[in-house]
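# nightly structure sweep
# worker-07 picked up a monomer target from the shared queue
# config: single-sequence mode, recycle default, output format = structure tokens
# input follows
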Amino acid sequence: MSILKTLKLTRAQPVRTSNDPVDRARNKVIAALAEQKAMAEAKLAGQNYAQTHMVWRKNEAGQRVRVETLKRLRAGWFVDASGQTFFGLRYAGKPIEFAKDKNAIAVGELIALPAILDKLTEAVRAGELDTQLAAAAAERGHMLRKAG
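# output follows
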């Protein structure tokens, strides 16, 4: 009996990732919101959140090697003088306005932040921030072209 006949054979092709810039922007923002949520949950638990990633560095011999290093993350929330917590979202180096002249979400206590980040993730998935993300990306692209 042939070994190939013992296997379940089928016709399949790998799924291509989307080249749609809107989907790419949404996925980047969703990933950033997931990091913010993990950082907030770690802060609430009294732990330090440290995510790592691989980077290329030169070693003592001058050769390029991959090294695992801590990822620099900036908290998207801040606390004002009265103790109120706010969350602001940035994309392409620009703060995102959720509504006209409204660039932050009033959270109240830090303990409420993970639930708000879940709602914000749902809004991004639903496409509610697509115009703001596109505008920020276009402005960043314009800024980069002007500098060059």
